[in-house]
Amino acid sequence: MNRILFVEDDESIIENLRSFLRSQGFEVEAVRGQTEALERLGEDFDLALLDVSLSDGNGFSLCSQIKRERDLPVIFLTASGDEYSVVTGLELGADDYIAKPFRPRELVSRIRSVLRRCGKSASVLELDGLRVDTERAQVTKNGREVFLSALEYKLLLVFLNNRGVVLSRGRLLEEIWDTAGDFVNDNTLTVYIKRLREKIEDDPQEPTIIKTVRGLGYKVGE
């Protein structure tokens, strides 16, 4: 699981974004300013998410110090969307820049893109005896390899990257509709979930990994 240092002084933004990022499979540690961020810089983080305007210091100065001390990817998250702020952030070594307001799923996509580019993306996902090596696209259950189709594999990754989140059938269809060039509708989604359960569940009739949330969709993890 990738670990993010989130530097932001707005409590409502901290709570909402931290909750969302955790639902997407990230571990998030939030601090309110430059001093506290630098105190925790020695910890094992994979990425820093910085607001430019901080009550204690500023994101530009913090980015410079981070880049001097560590090879840590940095994404600026700020209401300052003007060209000067963007250029300044990137010249200081930031790896990406996203302006508020933003779509949470776009931010997650940008985070994952930076982590992949910097070689820090978590390559192994594990849950209840299930192990997915994303670099090798290999799935094992209790040490035995599980062979999945491209669409089944994509579906499994969607679930594992959204642990604890109830995913509606509509959301699942949005995530996998173009995988492997297959046409997926509501009926075929049911078939793929059934096939996936048959391959990864100890008892497909009583699933403990991919759980049905009646009337809402499906959920993996707590």
Summarize the structure.
The protein is α/β, with parallel strands linked by helices. 39% of the residues lie in helices and 21% in strands. Strands 2-1-3-4-5 form a 5-stranded parallel sheet, with helices on both faces. A 4-stranded antiparallel sheet has the order 6-7-8-9, with helices on one face.
Textual characterization of the structure:
With 222 residues, the protein is of the alpha/beta class. The chain folds into 2 domains: 3-117, Response regulator (Rossmann fold), CATH 3.40.50.2300; 124-220, Orthogonal Bundle (Arc Repressor Mutant, subunit A). The chain contains 8 helices and 11 strands. β3, α3 (59-69) and β4 (74-78) form a beta-alpha-beta unit. α6 (150-160) packs across α8 (186-200). The protein is elongated and about 55 Å long. 24% of the residues are buried.
Question: What is the CATH H-level superfamily of the largest domain?
Answer: Response regulator
What is the global morphology? elongated
What's the gyration radius in Å? 19 Å
Using the coordinates above, name the CATH class of the largest domain. Alpha Beta
Q: What are its keywords?
A:
222 residues, alpha/beta, Rossmann fold, Arc Repressor Mutant, subunit A, 2 domains, five-stranded parallel β-sheet, four-stranded antiparallel β-sheet, 11 strands, 39% helix
